[in-house]
Amino acid sequence: MNDITMKLNADKYIMLALEEDISSEDVTTNSVMPEYALGEVDLICKQDGIICGLKVFERVFTLLDPDTKVDFSVKDGDEVKAGQHMATVRGDIRVLLSGERTALNYLQRMSGIATYTNSIVKLLEGSSTKLLDTRKTTPCMRIFEKYAVKTGGGLNHRYNLSDGILLKDNHIGAAGSVTKAVKMAKEYAPFVRKIEVETENLDMVKEAVEAGADIIMLDNMSHDMMRDAIAIIDGRAKTECSGNVTKENIANITDLGVDYISSGALTHSAPIMDISLKNLHAI
Fold this sequence. Notes:
It is a single chain. The strands form three sheets. A six-stranded parallel sheet has the order 6-11-10-9-8-7. A four-stranded antiparallel sheet has the order 3-5-1-12, with helices on one face. The chain has ten helices and twelve strands. It folds into two domains: 3-117 and 271-282, Quinolinate phosphoribosyl transferase, N-terminal domain (Aldehyde Oxidoreductase, domain 3); 121-268, Aldolase class I (TIM Barrel), CATH 3.20.20.70. Helix 6 crosses helix 7. Strand 9, helix 9 (223-233) and strand 10 (238-242) form a beta-alpha-beta unit. It is an alpha/beta fold and 283 residues long. 42% of the residues lie in helices and 20% in strands. The chain has helices at 3-21, 27-32, 54-64, 93-123, 142-151, 169-175, 178-188, 202-211, 223-233, 265-268; strands at residues 38-45, 49-50, 69-72, 79-80, 85-92, 130-132, 165-167, 195-199, 215-219, 238-242, 260-262, 275-282.
């Protein structure tokens, strides 16, 4: 995540998180540290995984005080081990104490997603299938969570509703049929937009192919039905498998040759990674 993206898109969410945690003052810190004192604290990894969100972690502290300095010994995407020293944060001790929880919340969440995503990407090695995330993200955390998926080796599906056309069951119901929905999307949307259709059975697959869909999602289908659907599509559209895809069952899909697998679990079910700030002391 570069500095421009941070300032334009991430800072407002980080500030909201800080305001949520410090509504008026940090009464505990102000009790024990009433005046400025320079100090430093160590960032320690407590379990193996893929680290992600270091710039966001740093930004929490620099938004509170631009003079805060963070000296990293790792970068986003690195494999880290339990007990590893990853950074030293130096600055006003009051800032280090007040920003600690918010900074760690971002880093733990993003690293957890990157780690979980990477574990699934490894299961797809040797196949041509690519792993996608979804819009099943925590409200106001999408920019961070989708970045974490990319850091873990996955790919981003559409970022939001303005980013692409995905005709799901209720859109098709509103339009009246798959054919009508695709026709209306082609007439409304710019020609540069690809049109994806969510299908639940083989009749819908056939209709989506004939209507000229660019991508056909095979949603919650059995292994045999997906195999038959891919045969019907026969390369005339990209294929995406979706629906309850997790690390535990993804091996059952890799032999199909589907182009993409999308998984909401990447962002809604990844456990956090255990990371701590330790050894705070004055300098």
